[in-house]
Structures are given as structure tokens and as C-alpha cells.
């Protein structure tokens, strides 16, 4: 896999951020982009602005011939082949670069969704699991945009419950084909795709026991007899992307088109989704930046009571909140993907050519991938909602971009596994890694419980030389609160905790906010250490401080939910007293922070830390 020049960083185990005190130099941040990565970002953004956005109306009207032409143009620029091996017509670049493309293509969500489904979950199954013959047959066509790919997993009765699929495959009597029957639902790109990665259970007619079926993946070409693409769905948002059901009626698929091993389809499905999740996070980041820029452009021109509404404090508050959330999203996204790249770069040369070790290294960051998916999709929802509110009545009509951005954003909380499922993945994987000994979470919880029982000690004097000393204290407190909540929940339910979904979701929110705050704090400190311009350092620190306020509110609320769910009476009061002890802090001046951040964003007419 080709690598662009990136700084050497460490790659701690997935979930290790809860327990380890990372150093600023150990993380990757957007300011570390290489000149080549910046050029790829500029090329992608220019394509989205000059080729995609001007034809938005036609794309939203489902002009799929135009969509195909744009995909071919993207292929000509190399944008479809970032993850494809060089001998199959691709560029085989690192995952940071792949995320950069996902972020910068996100100017029109309908095209971004079609693009991302093609290059991610549509193409990567072949990259990782395809035979050499399969790769040589299909990947050059996918990398060029000659063909478009789709991923067909969901069914009417099995969305997030992927293992419950009902589509069946039986081997033909002559052993030359698998015969598939069933139906797939909500398949992105279905109306334009030439190749589907489709999941079914292989059934032996002589042994109909459901437990003996084999969950498997197949490569199915569009013109395969027995495959029918259903009508387009009429959707709330992303109306210019194709979404259709697939009907398989005695669909005959050559045995050579079995992807990977029979019975190992779940490895393909779940490993590919990890990549899909971090790419979706990056795409949401790009969408949020454009939504903020559109809101600022409108607000600068909109006059009320004799002045631009950007001069009003409550409008500034929304602009600043959006900018701070984008900063957090950048910090989290590129920290996580940079760590994945570092893990991949550390693969021994003798294993580098195989995909299994790559998959294993990426799977170690399943927690972070789910965090990015949940946090970024909800961040985009907040930013686009701010956009509608800033536009006021104009935000509710189709003549302005705020309305479409708000509608388009909603699907991201459903894509790539619902946010509810991903919250369960975050906390479930943490518990799994803790029980297996891969993550020393249980000893850390025990140590904290011992600290709780010890007499209070005098607090150290705050470091007045550190502009983010307050936020560092909030991060330390958030870690303790998270460990405490996990500890009392584990004491109450033991191994049955996994069945308490509300508590598991609260633990996921606690974990996520720790990762968010830590990522921004480390990035701000790295900027100061690296001699970044003073105005950029000041903005980074202010955005960290502003978001820390809402992050800590979410931390305390989630911890109180857990405490009230596991205890009552005197025990609950004791738990709440401990939480209040951890949560004690002096509030930051949110008004001053918002005004500073909004002023910078309005001056630049965009997210203020965008690099030139």
C-alpha cells in the first residue's frame, strides 16, 4: 500500500484513550497533512464545486446519466481509486488521504452518498477479499468509473441485525452456480450499479437446519438472470442518490463469484463497515463546513434592525457552536485515522501484501470508528439545524441551501448501522476488550474505586501558565466519571450489563465525549508546540474551551442517568455526591468565547481554521 509522507505517530490500542495520557506529538492532526494530501484535498474540492454543485438541480431530479458521467470524471481524476491497488488501476494511498477525499467531495450530499457507497462499501470488499481473477476483472472498471458498485446487505427484517438475513443461496446440481432467492432493501446506488456485493445464506437442501447455513458474500453483475432492480424509493433527503430494492428470483450466480470463503461473509460485512463508518464521519465533517459557510454568507447579507444579523449575539452563538463542533470533528477524525495508518504502516513486510493483517489492524479501532460515525452524524444534524434557524423563514424553503442540507443530514444517523447500534458497539467492544485483558479497564476502575473510598486530598494549584488548564481538568474529571459509571454499572449487572441498552448507550456517550475533548485538547497543544500562528492557536484553544462546556454537561447527565439506574436511596445519594466531587469546576466565559470564534468565522466567511 503506497503511503504519503506523514509524521511518525504512535498507535495505541483501540479504546486506550480512556486510560492513557497521550502526548500531543503522538497524534495526527489536519495541520500534519502533507503537500500531496493538501493537493488531493484541493483537487477533490474543486471537482465538487465546479462539476457537481452547478448541476445540483439536475442531480436532485435523479438524472442518473449525469451521475454516471460525473463518476467517470471522478475516476479520471483518480478519486475513485484511492483505496484500489495500483496493479488494478488504483492509487493505493493511505486511509488519511481516503478520508480527505470523503470530506472534500461532500459538497452535495446526494452525489457524496453515491460516491462514498461506490468507493467504500462497494469497492473495498473486492480489494480485501477478492481473488486475483476477481480483482483484475472488476477493480479497473470500478476505479475508472466505467462501472458503479453497490453493497446489498439490508433486508426488510434485518437492518442492523445483519445476521438475520433471509436471502438464500443453494448450489446448483451441476455445481456451476449458486441459485439465490430473496429481497434486499434500501440499497444505495442500486439504480445505477453494475456490480453488487450481496449477502445471502448458503443452504444445503439435504440439511435445512438454519444453524448449518453459511452467511456468505457474492459478486453479482447487474444483468445476471434472475436479478431485478425495484423502483426508486422516494426519500426525505439525498433525493439525487439512487435507493432501490433488489429482488432475486432463481438468480444464477457463477461459483467463481463467491467472494471470500463460504460461511465467512460476516467478516466481510463487519470489517467493511468499520471503514464505512470513519469515511462517513469525514463526509459529515465536510458537509458541516459547507453548511456553516452557507449560513455565514446568508447572515452577512441579512439585515435586521439596521445591521447585519452576524452582529447579534444569539446568531454569533450558533456560528461559534458550529465552528467549535467542526474543530472537534476534525480533531477526532484525523486522530483516529492517523492512528489506523500508523498501525498499518507497522505491519511487517512479509505480511504487508495480505489483507487479513490489514483487516485485523483496522478492527482494533472499531470503537473509534463507531465513535466517529455517531458523533459526526449528530454534529452535522446540529450544524444544519443551526443553519435553518439562522436562515429563519428562508431556511424552510427550497430556494436556499439550508433546507436541503437539513434534510440530507438526517440519513447519516441511520447509515452504516444506526447510532443506537453503534453506541452498543462502543461500550460492548470496550467491555469485551476489558474482559479479554486487551484493555486494562477493570484494574483502572478498581483503582478509581479505591480513590473514591480514600479521604479527600488537597487539590493541586491550577497551572496558570497553561491556557487550557481548566479543560485539562475537565478531561481528567470526565475520565474518572466514565470509569466510575462503568464501575457501578458493572457491580450492579455483571455480565448482564450488555442487556441494559440505556446504560450501555450512556457509557458510550461518556466514552465518546472523553475522546472528543481529549482529541481537541491534544491538537490545540500540538499547535502551540509546533509554533503555529498565534491567531490559529488562540482559535483552537477557544474552540476547545467552548465545546468543553457542552461536553461536560453531557458527561454529567449521562453519569447521573447511570447512577439513578443502578442505585436508589442512600446508595444513590452517595454516588451522586461522588460525581459532584469529580465534576466540581469553575465555568468558562462562554459568551466571550463565542464572540471571538464567531468574529473569526464571519471575517473568513467559513470555518475559521480551514487551511489555505
TrEMBL record:
Class of this enzyme: oxidoreductase
Domain Acyl-CoA dehydrogenase-like C-terminal as annotated: residue spans: 478-581
SUPFAM superfamilies per the UniProt record, alphabetical: Acyl-CoA dehydrogenase C-terminal domain-like, Acyl-CoA dehydrogenase NM domain-like
InterPro entries reported in the protein's UniProt record: Acyl-CoA-dh-like_C, Acyl-CoA_Oxase/DH_mid-dom, Acyl-CoA_Oxase/DH_mid-dom_sf, AcylCo_DH-like_C, AcylCo_DH/oxidase_C, AcylCoA_DH/ox_N, AcylCoA_DH/ox_N_sf, AcylCoA_DH/oxidase_NM_dom_sf
UniProt entry tagged with the keyword Flavoprotein: yes
Domain Acyl-CoA dehydrogenase/oxidase N-terminal, residue spans: 34-146
Acyl-CoA oxidase/dehydrogenase middle domain residues: 150-251
Cofactors (names): FAD
Domain called Acyl-CoA dehydrogenase/oxidase C-terminal: residue spans: 263-427
Protein name in UniProt: Acetyl-CoA dehydrogenase
The organism of origin for this protein: Acidobacterium capsulatum (strain ATCC 51196 / DSM 11244 / BCRC 80197 / JCM 7670 / NBRC 15755 / NCIMB 13165 / 161)
Amino acid at each position: 500500500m503506497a503511503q504519503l509522507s506523514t509524521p511518525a505517530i504512535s498507535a495505541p490500542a483501540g479504546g486506550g484513550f480512556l486510560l492513557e495520557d497521550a502526548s500531543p506529538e503522538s497524534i495526527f492532526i489536519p495541520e500534519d497533512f502533507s503537500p500531496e494530501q493538501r493537493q488531493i484535498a484541493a483537487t477533490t474540492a474543486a471537482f465538487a464545486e465546479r462539476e457537481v454543485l452547478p448541476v445540483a438541480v439536475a442531480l436532485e431530479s435523479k438524472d442518473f446519466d449525469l451521475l454516471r458521467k460525473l463518476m467517470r470524471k471522478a475516476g479520471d481524476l483518480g478519486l475513485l481509486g484511492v483505496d484500489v491497488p495500483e496493479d488494478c488501476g488504483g492509487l493505493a494511498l493511505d486511509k488519511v488521504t481516503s478520508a480527505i477525499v470523503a470530506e472534500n467531495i461532500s459538497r452535495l450530499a446526494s452525489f457524496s452518498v453515491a460516491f462514498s457507497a461506490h468507493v467504500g462499501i462497494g469497492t473495498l470488499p473486492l480489494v480485501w477479499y477478492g481473488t486475483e481473477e476477481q480483482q483484475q476483472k472488476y477493480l479497473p472498471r470500478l476505479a475508472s468509473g466505467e462501472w458503479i458498485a453497490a453493497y446489498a446487505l439490508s433486508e426488510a427484517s434485518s437492518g442492523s441485525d445483519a445476521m438475520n438475513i433471509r436471502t438464500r443461496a443453494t448450489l446448483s446440481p451441476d455445481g456451476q452456480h449458486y441459485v439465490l432467492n430473496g429481497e434486499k432493501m434500501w440499497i444505495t446506488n442500486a439504480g445505477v450499479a453494475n456490480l453488487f456485493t450481496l449477502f445471502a445464506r448458503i443452504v444445503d437442501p439435504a440439511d435445512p437446519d438454519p444453524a448449518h447455513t453459511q452467511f456468505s458474500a457474492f459478486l453479482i453483475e447487474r444483468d445476471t438472470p434472475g436479478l431485478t432492480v425495484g423502483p426508486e424509493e422516494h426519500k426525505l433527503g439525498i433525493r439525487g442518490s439512487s435507493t432501490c430494492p433488489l429482488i432475486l428470483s432463481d438468480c444464477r450466480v457463477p461459483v467463481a463469484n463467491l467472494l471470500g470463503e463460504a460461511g465467512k461473509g460476516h467478516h466481510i460485512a463487519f470489517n467493511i463497515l468499520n471503514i464505512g463508518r470513519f469515511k462517513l464521519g469525514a463526509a459529515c465533517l465536510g458537509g458541516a463546513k459547507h453548511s456553516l459557510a452557507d449560513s455565514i454568507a446568508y447572515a452577512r447579507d441579512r439585515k435586521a434592525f439596521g445591521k447585519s444579523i452576524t452582529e447579534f449575539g444569539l446568531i454569533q452563538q450558533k456560528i461559534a457552536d458550529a465552528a467549535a463542533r467542526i474543530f472537534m470533528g476534525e480533531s477526532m477524525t484525523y486522530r483516529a485515522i492517523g492512528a489506523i495508518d500508523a498501525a498499518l504502516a507497522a505491519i511487517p513486510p512479509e505480511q504487508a501484501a495480505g489483507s487479513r493483517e490489514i483487516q485485523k489492524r483496522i478492527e482494533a479501532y472499531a470503537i473509534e470508528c463507531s465513535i466517529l460515525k455517531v458523533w459526526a452524524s449528530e454534529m452535522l444534524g446540529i450544524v444544519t439545524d443551526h443553519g435553518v434557524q439562522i436562515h429563519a423563514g428562508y431556511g424552510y424553503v427550497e430556494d436556499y441551501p439550508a433546507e436541503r442540507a437539513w434534510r440530507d443530514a438526517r440519513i447519516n444517523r441511520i447509515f452504516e448501522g444506526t447510532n443506537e447500534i453503534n453506541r452498543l458497539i462502543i461500550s460492548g467492544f470496550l467491555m469485551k476488550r476489558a474482559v479479554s485483558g486487551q484493555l486494562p479497564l477493570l484494574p483502572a476502575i478498581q483503582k478509581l474505586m479505591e480513590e473514591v473510598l480514600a479521604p479527600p486530598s488537597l487539590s493541586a494549584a491550577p497551572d496558570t501558565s497553561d491556557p487550557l488548564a481548566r479543560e485539562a481538568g475537565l478531561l481528567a474529571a470526565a475520565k474518572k466519571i466514565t470509569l466510575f459509571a462503568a464501575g457501578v454499572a458493572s457491580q450492579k449487572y455483571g455480565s448482564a450489563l450488555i442487556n441494559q441498552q440505556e446504560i450501555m448507550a450512556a457509557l458510550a456517550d461518556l466514552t465518546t465525549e472523553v475522546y472528543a475533548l481529549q482529541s481537541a485538547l491534544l491538537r490545540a497543544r500540538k499547535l502551540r508546540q509546533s509554533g503555529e500562528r498565534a491567531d490559529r492557536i488562540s482559535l483552537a484553544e477557544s474552540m476547545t474551551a467552548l465545546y468543553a462546556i457542552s461536553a461536560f454537561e453531557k458527561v454529567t447527565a449521562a453519569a447521573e442517568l447511570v447512577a439513578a439506574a443502578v442505585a436508589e436511596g442512600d446508595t444513590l445519594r452517595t454516588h451522586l455526591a461522588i460525581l459532584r466531587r469529580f465534576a466540581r469546576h469553575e465555568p468558562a466565559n462562554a459568551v466571550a468565547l463565542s464572540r471571538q470564534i464567531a468574529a473569526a468565522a464571519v471575517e473568513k466567511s467559513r470555518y475559521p481554521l480551514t487551511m489555505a
